[in-house]
Amino acid sequence: GVASVVLGIPKIAMKAFATMRRRQFDTNCMMFFATCGALALQEYSEAAAVTFLFSISDWLETLSTARARNALSAIVKLRPERAKVKDPISGNFVFAPASSVGIGSIVSVRTGDKIPCDGVVVEGSSVVDESSLTGESRPVQKVPGSTVSGGTVNAGVAQLLIQTISTSENSAVARLIRLVEDAQANRSPTEKLIDAFAKRYTPLVVLLALSMCTFPWIAGPDVGREWTKIGLVTIVIACPCALIISTPVTYVAGLAAAAQSGIVVKGGAHLESLGRVNKIAFDKTGTLTEGNFKLLHLRTWG
User: Fold this and answer.
1) Taking 80 as the threshold, does the pLDDT of residue 7 lie above it?
2) What are the pLDDT digits (tens) for 107-156?
3) pLDDT for 45 beyond 60
4) Given a cut of 60, is residue 161 above it in pLDDT?
5) Cα(14)–Cα(61) distance, integer angstroms
6) pLDDT confidence of residue 121
């Protein structure tokens, strides 16, 4: 029990002191006071349980956040790093960073290459894989005059010449990346409620416990010791461990799991609203497929 406290309390204490230096109280303060109260009461198993559970919660949140970051990295990789741009002076195509391609430039996209920016096809006919953006598994035919999105792939056998209509920072894939980044910061009403509750609840409990540990000493040492014990018990039992620990981890894990499955949920607020959905309507063919083509029938002649 003591070993768990020794290993778990330093990180909680650092976060708690950092918060108190800003003249605020949060969940880390509550956990720190609860642990100190349990140690003062010589309830080492209680102190160990608080630090162990909170450390596990912090580790799970870090792990889930890392997975969400990895999922975001996979989405970021959709953005092309370079483009083959036509030099307006010489007429030759040269490689340049995708971020440097201006609006109105002519870019060449060969088979298997990513389209660097949103644009319009001016020459060539091919099919483009847009599954990374739209979820549609079937490649889309593109001919002169068709619009294409940055981050999609030329999946045909012909080269496409595309005139850009936006920069890489304003392309469809760039907007998708910004949506995922914003989703990480979009907090649900439940998370906001828990934080607001902790900000008001923690100071009240600390003030009440502090009053119990100080004022009764005026009545004598025996009364003071008894009420000090009651004050420390109050801090321990008033710590809403399950409520504080479970809420952020649940949302971070849900967002990470969805992102790894290719589903972009715009934050905990929208994830929470999905729990109230009873019916879902799918309006496009192919939405429920896995995107894996199979040969269903083969007929030969001759």
Assistant:
1) no
2) 999 988 888 888 999 999 999 988 777 766 678 899 999 989 888 888 88
3) yes
4) yes
5) 18
6) 92
pTM: 0.48
Written in H, E and C, the secondary structure of the chain is CHHHHHHHHHHHHHHHHHHHHCCCCCHHHHHHHHHHHHHHCCCHHHHHHHHHHHHHHHHHHHHHHHHHHHHHHHHHCCCCCEEEEECCCCCCEEEEEHHHCCCCCEEEECCCCECCCCEEEEECCEEEECHHHHCCCCCEEECCCCEECCCCEECCCCCEEEEECCCHHHCHHHHHHHHHHHHHHCCCHHHHHHHHHHHHHHHHHHHHHHHHHHHHHHHCHHHHHHHHHHHHHHHHHCCCHHHHHHHHHHHHHHHHHHHHCCCCCCCHHHHHHHCCCCCCCCCCCCCCCCCCCCCCCCCCCC
| Catalytic status, residue 26 | no
Name the active-site residue from 129, 182, 195, 283.
283
pLDDT tens-digit profile of 213-268?
Answer: 889 888 888 888 788 878 877 776 776 655 666 666 677 677 767 766 667 676 67
d(CA 138, CA 144): 20
Nearest to 183 by CA among 254, 261, 244, 78: 254
Q: How far is CA 165 from CA 107, 110, 142, in A?
A: 11, 19, 16
CA distances 113 to 101, 127, 187, Å, are: 16, 12, 37
